[in-house]
Amino acid sequence: MKFTRRDLLAWSAGAAAGLIVTPIPWKLLDDTSIWSQNWPWIPQPPRGPVETKRSFCTLCPKGCALRVRMAAGWPVGISGAPDNPATRGALCPLAYGAHQLNWHPARLKAVRHRGNTSSWFEASTAFAKASTEGPVVIIDGFPGRSTSQLFQDFASKRAAQYRVVLSPEIRSLRAYEAWAGVPATALGYDLENVRTIVSFGARMLDGWGSPGRFSHLWAEQASGKTDPQLRLIQIEPQLSRTASRAWKWISIRPETDSALAAGIARVLLEQRLVRATGPMPRLSLTEASSLTGLGPDAIHDLAQVLVAEKPTLAIADGDNPAVAALNFVLGSIGTPGGIIQTTKSAMPYLPAESNIDAARAVLIDSSVPWDFDVQTEAEVFRFAAWDGGSSKADWLLPAPGFLEELTDIPSAPGSSVQTYSLTAALTRPAFEVHTAAQFLQNVEPQIGKPEEIIHQRCAQIFKARTGSIYAADVAAVSNCSSPQKLEEAMWAGAIWMNEPLYNSRLLRSLREWPTEAGSATPQNSENTWSPGILPPLSSKLYCESNLCESSERRNA
Amino acid sequence: MSARYGMVIDLDRCTGCGACMMACAAENNVPALPKATNRTGLTPMLVRKVSNGRNGVAQREVFIPILCMHCEQHTPCVSVCPQQAVEVDRATGIVMQMPQRCLGCRYCMTACPYHARYFNWWDPAWPAGTEKSLNPGVAVRMRGVVEKCNMCHARLHAAQEKAAAAGKREIDPADYVPACVEACPTGAIRFGNLADPNDPVTQESHSPEAFRFLARLGTEPKVYYKSKEAWVRALAEAASSTEVQHG
Amino acid sequence: MKRTLLGFAIGFAFTLMLGWIAFPRALYTHKQQPFTFLHKAHAEKSGISDCGECHAFKDDGEFAGIPATEKCASCHSEQLGDTKAEAILVSNYVKPGHETHWLVYAQQPANVWFSHAIHLKRAGLSCQQCHGSYGETDQVKVYQLNRISGYSRDIWGHSMSRFRRAPGDGMKMSDCETCHSRRHVEVGCLGCHK
């Protein structure tokens, strides 16, 4: 029997007819369509139990309260904590994408020594050697933490120097230091009780202080009102975001803030618009007018607006003694709605200069903004979670990233009351990271651990019996049953907030109008505070909208 | 009971910080692709800066968050979609885009008067490891589909599940707040049920300061804006979103 | 003519055999669970009859799915019997505190949102209506992985024809739709997708 072409056709027809009554075509169609919807190279979110934890942002010294949504143990969403009275649920835009920062390609994953991969052991040995050979300088960007305390302990045990890089809010308070005899870190602006704010370029609505604090006050009391309860007067050459939303925007020539402050003070004093009788600035109104480009009438009107609704606060962008002196003229020192002392126990500090001579080693903590770099002959050990590029440091040491560090959070810069909160590490990186405190401990084991200092501080808060603990509900510290209970609540995400200290003895008058200029902003010319790397989402979104303004584009 | 979710955005309160954009993108697993530009990127929530066009001290700016307006009537994208990949949900009034069903013709993008729809020009990608930080409540979209604001549907899901677990049929309004609303530090974006006459958002939407962009088209958008300034309200009838974009 | 018919029949029979016998074997590959877990034995020895005892809900309605190692450890912190499976559980998972990577039979694609709370508490469905009687069996179900789609055979259902299936056999979108339309429950696309 021969197999013919006809047989083949018959067989094929039978096979084809059979095929449609088998699952083959239908199942293949179905499976391939499912496969095409699930390309293996499309990243998939983690699967696992979802829970919400509380934490605090450690990317800048403002320490905003966070609620962190975790899935399968990884942070997958950030939102503010509305029950926190210091930030009131608001965060800066960067925080919303900060949980993706830990995966940023610029993440520092291994110790780097002058561009080459090195090890923790080598770094530690090099630092131990350097610290025995000569003086060490430790630079902190987030003073007041338990880690800062350890730095100071190390400094006192090893004759090292402890230096602080100040945030713009604290820099604007530096002028009062010498006059009031109180460190700038112990001073704050009582914005909650102020009626008029004259901001000399301070970005009040762009994250000044902590984003939640002023934006809420402004939104409730000022936004869109023709005669607001809180009058925000923005003095700035260009129409900034804050200026565009301010009650009044006054455009002056760049760098003439001091002249305008002097002009306003002269009008206030000469026209007896204020109770104070001095200090009288040397600059005349005409001089101030020609310097700033504002007419004498305009300065006169501005002075009158400033005393129309009091208390009035003048806030500078960075260190500006003339603006600081204006607050003395306005009588806004040590009073509600003025500049007040927040704590009586702040440690004195020395500001970091970018030029460091006569040091054998410099240790820069990861809290120092990346823009701050030092000019020195010394060996520089820099801790950072991200390599923002072009650092002159000899050693780059990987530090814990976002939500990876156990730490305490002192008052936000410029805050009118003292606050304290704690945060535990929520995740851990897959590679070896150390904090600067842990690193110093290898060299000097006697300096203790952050946990011990946190424990002591909680005990002190319990003992002092002032202020309240804010969690889901508010409890006065005096109602707390034990220091353990207090610390437990703090680890669960509560915040301790002290009462404002209005009756502190700050110097309330000033003899002479300051003539010196304020200290320059250390390198960080934008007066912003960034971890060197921005969440990729922020670079993308700000470029795709038309909001690109100054630093936001930097890492785009 | 059927709800009509909508928003009132108080432009006098918007400081243009962009927290809404960031929170939206993080919530909805929007990738940050370096090659994307302002014409090819995905921005379900987009804050635009608009100037009054004057110079010097007379210059004023306003920040306008633009998102899907969730048109109630003759919804343009729904009318043109050949795939039924977008529909106005009967129960919530949300204009729901279903990326898995989309065939990528982009007809809806042309039809949308607000340019609030975006096309995935590339497969989503993140730096290695970032997938662990993605929101598990929202599926990642693939190349070739259109997406837009779904009013944080994952949050509605979570609220519905919570209500069901508690044995309730209706969700607690406090449980369903879109990411942009939650993130706004000044409370400029308010979210509520426009079908409820007692909802503060419904009442605000009737205020004389409230307006909607391109209301004359008759699509009854459910996102209202509000401003005390007349020049801002005048932007409402700008002929196209290009005019809004360039002020 | 006869011969043509015979040829047709042979071809027909060939593809039938190919499609109904060889194809399913080629399409699915068998995978082993990390260790043997017997539902029936657990139900009998511990006296637990409610699925929700181990497959619990959280307060916000989130379904915890397969219990975490912690739940196993509440009884098996130390070895109780002499089975190999228990030895693996105690030494590999309970003692080091690792989670077991179970192969989930009902695993759905990432774009599916399914709320157990809504289906059980609001609609009053039973576990068995979708999951069948697996919770009462005394053997481990073989996990059959679809080589193309990457999902378990339980999604399509054990019956290749999807005809006259046992209750709870199959978890495709059409199965959801059938039940929804029978019960007149209308949700939009994003009611079940995310």
Outline the secondary-structure elements.
The complex is a heterotrimer of chains A (556), B (247) and C (194).
Chain A: H1 5-20, H2 24-37, E1 50-56, E2 65-71, E3 74-80, E4 112-113, E5 116-117, H3 120-133, E6 136-140, H4 146-158, E7 161-164, H5 168-171, H6 174-181, E8 187-189, E9 196-200, H7 211-221, E10 231-235, H8 241-245, E11 248-250, H9 257-270, H10 285-292, H11 296-308, E12 312-316, H12 321-329, E13 339-341, E14 350-351, E15 355-356, E16 361-364, E17 375-376, E18 379-384, E19 395-398, E20 407-410, E21 419-423, H13 436-443, H14 450-464, E22 468-470, E23 474-476, H15 483-491, E24 495-497, H16 536-544
Parallel strand pairs in A: 6-7, 6-16, 7-14, 9-10, 9-12, 10-11, 15-17, 16-18, 18-19
Antiparallel strand pairs in A: 1-2, 2-3, 4-5, 4-19, 8-13, 20-21, 21-24, 22-23, 22-24
Helix pairs in contact in A: 4-14, 9-10, 9-11, 9-12, 14-15
Chain B: E1 5-10, H1 19-27, E2 46-51, E3 61-66, H2 76-80, E4 86-88, E5 95-97, H3 107-111, E6 118-119, E7 146-147, H4 153-165, H5 179-183, E8 189-193, H6 200-205, E9 210-211, E10 223-226, H7 230-233, H8 241-246
Chain C: H1 2-27, E1 28-31, H2 39-46, H3 69-73, H4 84-94, H5 116-122, H6 127-131, E2 143-146, H7 153-156, H8 173-182, H9 189-192
Antiparallel strand pairs in C: 1-2
